[in-house]
Amino acid sequence: MTAALLGVVRERTPLVHCVTNLVATTLSANVLLAVGASPAMVEDREEAAELAAVAGALVVNTGTMTPERADGMRAAANAALDVGTPWLLDPVGVGPLALRTRVAGELLRLGPAVVRGNASEILALAGHDGGGRGVDATDSVDDAAAAADELARRYGTVVAVSGVVDRLTDGATVRHVRGGHAVMGRMTATGCALGAVTGAFLAAARGTGDDSLTAAVAAHAVVGATGAAAGASAAGPGTFVPAWLDALAATDGRNADALVDGG
Amino acid sequence: MTAALLGVVRERTPLVHCVTNLVATTLSANVLLAVGASPAMVEDREEAAELAAVAGALVVNTGTMTPERADGMRAAANAALDVGTPWLLDPVGVGPLALRTRVAGELLRLGPAVVRGNASEILALAGHDGGGRGVDATDSVDDAAAAADELARRYGTVVAVSGVVDRLTDGATVRHVRGGHAVMGRMTATGCALGAVTGAFLAAARGTGDDSLTAAVAAHAVVGATGAAAGASAAGPGTFVPAWLDALAATDGRNADALVDGG
Amino acid sequence: MTAALLGVVRERTPLVHCVTNLVATTLSANVLLAVGASPAMVEDREEAAELAAVAGALVVNTGTMTPERADGMRAAANAALDVGTPWLLDPVGVGPLALRTRVAGELLRLGPAVVRGNASEILALAGHDGGGRGVDATDSVDDAAAAADELARRYGTVVAVSGVVDRLTDGATVRHVRGGHAVMGRMTATGCALGAVTGAFLAAARGTGDDSLTAAVAAHAVVGATGAAAGASAAGPGTFVPAWLDALAATDGRNADALVDGG
Q1: How many CB atoms within 10 Å of residue C209?
Q2: Dihedral pair phi/psi, residue B97, rounded to 5°
Q3: What is the pLDDT of residue B133?
Q4: Which of B92, B159, C3, C42 matches a 20 to 30 Å C-alpha distance to C11?
Q5: Cα distance between residue C112 and residue C88, in whole Å
Q6: B interface test, pick of A46, A73, A240 with most B CB neighbours within 10 Å
Q7: What number of CA atoms fall less than 13 Å from residue A84's CA on the CB side?
């Protein structure tokens, strides 16, 4: 499953439009290139609308939010909704910070195919009182399970909660994905990069007819498998990122399905 | 030729002012430092005008365009034109995206010494219907040859079209530069970094009396030689960038002229 | 001393809020994670005020200044002053560039615990005619000693001047910190990263009762020791950064005190 969708990414090199944060932009572009997609990081309101309408998928990430970047996000998500481009919402830091919490609440109504975040962000997005601090989760994936199911059903979306074991649901089916490595928590923007890779798989799934949950699970499995391998070979967080990008570029995805439970 | 100009960069450490995109800014600064120049990434309208007037060269890159960044670009290019600072235009994503296409059209009238882009960007800048998709070229360097010659003559500039073999022209003379490595297409902003290095060589050429075509060819040859060496030694795109920066810092440029044809 | 404070950073993972420049943001986040802190890069005016009030420390860096980012800096520094969050001012490029020079002058009045910069920036901040060019120092640490002492006494702050040997003073006591490696001058934003690490130690010192000079000296010593080790093992500037992040994540800080003179 994962290998087949990864093959489609490599064959079609889908254009993945990202409106993302300042910290994540370079790594997100590089993981997309490594996995075989074509990234375009475009945030201006006018350009974002143009690009989202022709992209294979759109990724909107609320880190380093500003009113101007929020305008670009709204324009991109509306354009994606109008023409049917699948898009992912990554609600970085939602909860403790008011501007991005308001903006994420608006964006949620524009039909994201996938919402991906840590447990505290998903709790906050669902209106629960998450314990997030800055951009870090202080809640566990299990703590957010009910909120994730509720969000998925209310908005007709897939909700992916990232943690030691990731939990993904479309409100009916739940899948778990293991993998990754503790060192990924010592490098910034690895979660944002996971969101970007998920965008590439959403784009590929348009050609295969796979649903968004299948695409998101495959993306999480590829990241889990390559992150685990790179984490095991790296001497620390600094050498992890080069090793991870090499692993993403080299993998055929065949070992990734073994990380997926449930279904 | 290349070794001599690289020696001048190292000796004078020219200040290279970049108004560039969010994805390219760190890598561009790092390649400039590796090659021996002093980067300054300044985008505010007021500061950009101050800096462009005292810099050795200016690099303007239209990626991640916003109206505010466009104001900084116009201010910098006008200041450079007024005092004779040579400057390079890198029209990232011009063609499919309207805002940056308009801004690049304005900037082209402000006397860039060099325009560097992929084939689709150069076709679009010349008013032809390029097939660019997002920020990727879908046309070949040969497809853009006539458009490049036309742009060079109309605006009195050097046009460098990047591809498997780069083609540079001032409208009269054509030079080709080989080198580089396929892995460079799997890392973001390597083309932008080539534009930044070209800025360093434009600054050095002010002291030697070399023309802009000579400077641009030398920069492309250094990037081609070091990119080929680093690409051959790297295990993938992740380990490529550290290896490339090391190669740029270590090279004396002597092996680079062998990559240049024509003249 | 250094090992004890580093242990507190690792145990408490303080939230370090950075309003920093586009070139420094990813590396600053990554050095903070490597050292054991929790970075949050938040620049919007509204969000910056919210976050600075709850953060363990705040770092404000004037590189890539814009009027909007200046608003975020003012809001964050005012919020920090109101609730007693210690904060660090890193006056990147102050002197030759007018906007950031004005903004840094305003920020200096909002009670920074530490000001960290190169010699030219400190001279300019004190109103002397520094010889800075772009963001590079053209003055020596000794040239800036009197200006640093004067700033420290006038504003009741610690002033850290970075150079081959760093000089830190609170206006009464002077400490010198050796270490680091020449290759750090060939990678962008290593000085900004030092400022970020100093923020983490300021946050840790809130729990131990150590003063800001002690915290700043410890941060400089950790950066000096890990930078020296990574510089010695790296093949060039490209391989330096991964090696440095690994060294920061691995160090227990015990070898760092040997780099500190004076007291």
Answers
A1: 7
A2: -115, 125
A3: 73
A4: C42
A5: 5
A6: A46
A7: 1
Give residue C1's pLDDT.
85
Buried b / exposed e along A236-251 (16+ C-beta atoms within 10 A): bbbbbbbbbbbbbbeb
Instruction: Flag the least confident range among A70-84, A221-235, B121-135.
Output: B121-135
The answer to whether B162 is annotated as binding is: yes
Amino acid at the residue C168: L
| Mode of pairing for the β-strands spanning A166-169 and A158-162 | antiparallel
What is the rounded CA–CA span in Å between residue A170 and residue A211? 10
- Judged by a CB distance cut-off of 8 A, whether residue A246 touches chain B is yes
pLDDT averaged over every residue in chain A: 96
Residues recorded for chain B: 263
* Tokens 């390559």 belong to residue: A226
The chain C residue lying nearest A63, using CA atoms, is C42
Longest dimension (CA), chain B: 47
DSSP line for C142-210: GGGHHHHHHHHHHHT-EEEEESSSEEEESSS-EEEE----GGGGGSTTHHHHHHHHHHHHHHHHHHH--
Let me know: does C261 contact C217? Beta carbons within 8 Å.
no
> Any chain C CB within 8 A of the CB of B241?
yes
pLDDT at C166 over 60: yes
Six token digits for residue A247: 């692993």
The model's confidence at residue C119, banded by pLDDT at 50, 70 and 90, is very high
Residues 100-139 of C with CB under 8 A from A: none
For the stretch A18-55, pLDDT in tens is: 999 999 999 999 999 999 999 999 999 999 999 999 99
The C-alpha of A242 sits at a distance from chain B's nearest C-alpha, in angstroms, of 4
pLDDT tens digits along B92-142: 999 999 999 999 999 999 999 999 999 999 999 999 875 667 677 788 999
The ipTM, to two decimals, is 0.95
Q: CB under 8 Å to C112, separation ≥6 — which residues?
A: C60, C77, C87, C88, C89, C155, C157
- Work out the minimum CA distance from A211 to partner chain C, whole angstroms: 34
For A172, residues 6+ apart whose C-beta sits below 8 A from its C-beta are none
Runs of H (alpha helix) within chain B:
2-12, 25-35, 45-54, 67-83, 98-108, 119-125, 145-155, 190-208, 212-233, 237-250
Burial call C130-150: b when 16+ CB within 10 Å, e when fewer = bbbbbbbbebebebbbebbbb
Q: What is residue A132's predicted lDDT score, i.e. its pLDDT?
A: 66
Task: Inspect the interface and report whether the beta carbons of A136 and C26 lie closer than 8 Å.
Answer: no
CA separation for the pair B18, C35 (Å, rounded): 31
Q: What is the rounded CA–CA span in Å between residue C141 and residue C115?
A: 14
CA triple B42-B47-B53, angle to 5 deg:
95
Q: Is the dihedral of CA C59, C63, C67, C69 positive or negative?
A: negative
- Domains assigned to chain B: 2-262 (3.40.1190.20)
Q: Is the pLDDT of residue B263 over 70?
A: no
Instruction: Give me chain B's average pLDDT, please.
Output: 96
A-C CB pairs within 8 A amount to: 99
DSSP structure class, residue B187: S
**Contact indicator for A122, A98 with CB cutoff of 8 Å:** no
Which residue do the tokens 């050795």 mark?
B56
The structure's pTM equals 0.97
pLDDT level of residue C94 (50, 70, 90 thresholds): very high
d(CA A3, CA A7): 6
Strand order from edge to edge, sheet including C38-41 = C38-41, C15-19, C57-61, C87-90, C114-118, C158-162, C166-169, C174-177, C260-262
Enumerate the β-bridge partners of residue B262: B175
Q: Across-strand partners of B253? A: none
